[in-house]
Automatic annotation (TrEMBL):
Biological source species: Panagrolaimus davidi
Signal found in the keyword field: yes
Domain of life: Eukaryota
Name of the molecule in the record: Uncharacterized protein
Family annotation (InterPro entries): 6-blade_b-propeller_TolB-like
Amino acid sequence: MKKLLLLLILLLLNSIANSESVKIIARRPTSLVTFELNTENSNVTELKTVLNGIIDKFSTHFVVDVNQSTVILVDPSHQQHDRIQVVKIGDSEVSLNSAKTINRQSGVADELISSQSYDWITKKVYIAVDRVGTKKSGRIEACPIDSNDGCTILLSNDFGMHSLVVDPTEG
């Protein structure tokens, strides 16, 4: 795992060092924005809102499929449980209201999605779910973003999940 993390950091540093600008998607209080960071002079250019409607009092996890121009985000504002929403982004600003919701087989009030990771090979988002309250447990779910099949529970155990990474070369 340490070797994989080191490899990812080296690849990121190499791409930044060999590029004059890096395109970044970031969260602002109620939106997601894209901008380019010039690595030579640290200037930010082309700040543009691509998604609005995020509620600012909640933490929002998101991952991006750059090839499909898709943002997959956890919307914690839902009353019952966290929702996973898939939004196509492009040149014009879109609203979170236009998002497709991924159906989870479970999701109760005392569960929180603590982390997510996207596998662009299989087009699935993997989520780590923590259950708080009297029975603490954790699990990993795999959710296809291109179908309405819902999420599949891959692992359920009595340990807490706090972060999750998918191997970028093998899925």
